[in-house]
TrEMBL record:
It comes from Longibacter salinarum. PANTHER family: FRUCTOSE-1,6-BISPHOSPHATASE-RELATED (PTHR11556), SEDOHEPTULOSE-1,7-BISPHOSPHATASE, CHLOROPLASTIC (PTHR11556:SF35). CDD domains: FBPase (cd00354). This is Fructose-1,6-bisphosphatase class 1. One of its GO terms (molecular function) is fructose 1,6-bisphosphate 1-phosphatase activity. Its EC number is 3.1.3.11. The gene is fbp. Pathway: Carbohydrate biosynthesis. Belongs to the FBPase class 1 family. Homotetramer. It catalyses: beta-D-fructose 1,6-bisphosphate + H2O = beta-D-fructose 6-phosphate + phosphate. The keyword Ribosomal protein does not apply. Mg(2+) 1 binds at residues 109, 132, 134. Keywords: Carbohydrate metabolism, Cytoplasm, Hydrolase, Magnesium, Metal-binding.
Length: 361
C-alpha cells in the first residue's frame, strides 16, 4: 500500500487508489492459486472468520451506546466472569462458521466443550477452529484495545466430519494450518500466517474491507519492552525475578537496558505491540495460576506460530509451545513469547543458567 494515507499539515492527504490496495480476500485468493488442487474451502473459512471479526468490530465500536458493557452475570468454563461482549463475540464467530459450512468443530474459550457443527448442507466441513472470541474483554468497559485469536486445524482423516469426535481438536500447535488474531485498537487489524510468513491487514471501515497494510511482517531479534503483570512478582520463581531484575539494570554497553515495562493486560494488544516494536510478553506460573493463565490451544499456540513465523520465539520456559501435547481443550500454559534473543535469555534465567546467553550481545 505504497503512498497510502500520507499525513501532511496535520491532515490525511492522499488515499490509496484501487491500483495500490489489496484486500484480504484478494490476498487469500492469490495464495490459493499457488495450490492447483485447492478447492477454495480454506479461503472461504478465512473469509468467514474475517466477516465475524468485522461484525464484532462494528458492535464493539458502539459499546457504551448500546447495552453491551459489563458482565452477563455468568462465569465461563474457566470460572471467569463473562462479559456481554464475550458472549456476543462467541455467538458471531459460531454463527459465521456455522453458516460458512467449512468448519466441523469449534473450540471456544466461552464454551466448556468443543462445539460440533452440522456440515450436511454447505461446504466441506474439513476444518477445526479454536478461538478466543474476545481476549482481554475485562478491558472493554474502559475503552482499552482487545482482540480475537484463532487457530485452524485440519480434521484428521480418521474422524468423520458429520460426527467429529471432540478429541479431534486436541492437536499440538505444530499441526496448525493457519493462525491469526484481530486487534480492535485505534484501528482494527487482522494478522495471520499459514506458515509462509506473516501478513497484516488493516480494516478500512469506509469500504468494509481488510486491506494489506503490513506485508511480510518480521519482528526485531531483540527489543526494549517487557510485558508482565509485576503485581505477582513475589510469587514468581527465583529465575524469573532474576531476569526481571537484569532487564531493569543499567548497562552502558546495552542500549536495551534498562528495559521498559508495557503491560496492557490484553494479550493480543501486548503481543501486537511487541511484535512490531520488539519485546517479550510473559505470563508465568503464579500462586493463583500454578499452570499459568493463558490457554495453550487458542491463545498460546496461534500466537507462538505467528511469533515464530515473524522470526520470534515462544516457550513455556522449558519447552517450545507448539510442541506441547494438549490433553484438554482449555489447558493452560506459562508463556514467554516475543523477540528471539529476549525469550532465549528468559529461558536461560529460568533454567538457572543465565550466563548461557552473554550479556550485551
Ligand atoms: P480477560 O479476557 O479476562 O480480560 O483476560 C485477559 C487475559 O487472558 C490476557 O489477555 C491478559 O494478558 C491477561 O489475561 C491479564 O491477566 P492479569 O490481569 O492476571 O495480568
Amino acid at each position: 500500500m505504497a503512498n497510502s494515507d500520507s499525513v501532511s499539515n496535520g491532515t490525511a492527504s492522499t488515499r490509496p487508489d484501487l491500483g495500490d490496495i489489496k484486500t484480504l480476500e484478494q490476498f487469500i485468493l492469490e495464495q490459493q492459486d499457488r495450490f492447483p488442487h485447492s478447492t477454495g474451502a480454506f479461503s472461504r473459512l478465512l473469509r468467514d472468520i474475517s466477516l465475524a471479526a468485522k461484525i464484532v468490530n462494528r458492535d464493539m465500536r458502539k459499546a457504551g451506546l448500546i447495552d453491551i458493557y459489563g458482565s452477563t452475570g455468568e462465569t465461563n468454563v474457566q470460572g471467569e466472569v463473562q462479559q456481554k461482549m464475550d458472549a456476543l463475540a462467541h455467538r458471531e464467530f459460531v454463527l459465521a462458521l456455522r453458516r460458512g459450512g467449512e468448519c466441523c468443530l469449534i473450540g471456544s474459550e466461552e464454551h466448556a466443550e468443543a462445539i460440533p457443527l452440522d456440515t450436511s448442507s454447505e461446504g466441506d466441513g474439513k476444518y477445526i477452529v479454536l478461538l478466543d472470541p474476545l481476549d482481554g474483554s475485562s478491558n472493554i468497559d474502559v475503552c482499552v484495545s482487545v482482540g480475537t485469536i484463532f487457530s485452524i486445524y485440519r480434521l484428521p482423516d480418521e474422524y468423520d466430519e458429520d460426527e467429529p469426535d471432540l478429541d479431534a481438536a486436541l492437536q499440538p500447535g505444530t499441526e496448525q494450518i493457519a493462525a491469526g488474531y484481530v486487534v480492535y485498537g485505534s484501528s482494527t487489524m487482522m494478522v495471520y500466517t499459514t506458515g509462509n510468513g506473516v501478513n497484516g491487514f488493516t480494516l478500512d471501515t469506509s469500504i468494509g474491507e481488510f486491506l494489506l497494510s503490513h506485508p511480510d511482517l518480521t519482528t526485531p531479534k531483540t527489543g526494549r519492552i517487557f510485558s508482565i503483570n509485576a503485581g505477582y512478582y513475589h510469587s514468581f520463581e527465583d529465575g524469573l525475578c532474576d531476569y526481571l531484575d537484569w532487564l531493569q539494570e543499567y548497562d552502558e554497553n546495552d542500549p536495551n537496558r534498562p528495559a521498559k515495562t508495557r503491560y496492557i493486560g490484553s494479550f493480543v494488544s501486548d503481543f501486537h505491540r511487541n511484535l512490531l516494536k520488539g519485546g517479550i510478553y510473559m505470563y508465568p506460573a503464579t500462586q493463583s495460576s500454578p499452570e499459568g493463565k493463558l490457554r495453550l490451544m487458542y491463545e498460546a499456540n496461534p500466537m507462538a506460530w505467528i511469533a515464530e513465523q515473524a522470526g520470534g520465539r515462544a516457550t513455556d520456559g522449558h519447552t517450545r509451545i507448539m510442541e506441547k501435547s494438549p490433553t484438554k481443550l482449555h489447558q493452560r500454559t506459562p508463556l514467554f513469547i516475543g523477540s528471539e534473543d529476549m525469550v532465549r535469555r528468559a529461558e536461560a534465567f529460568l533454567q538457572g543458567d543465565p550466563d548461557r546467553v552473554a550479556a550485551g550481545e
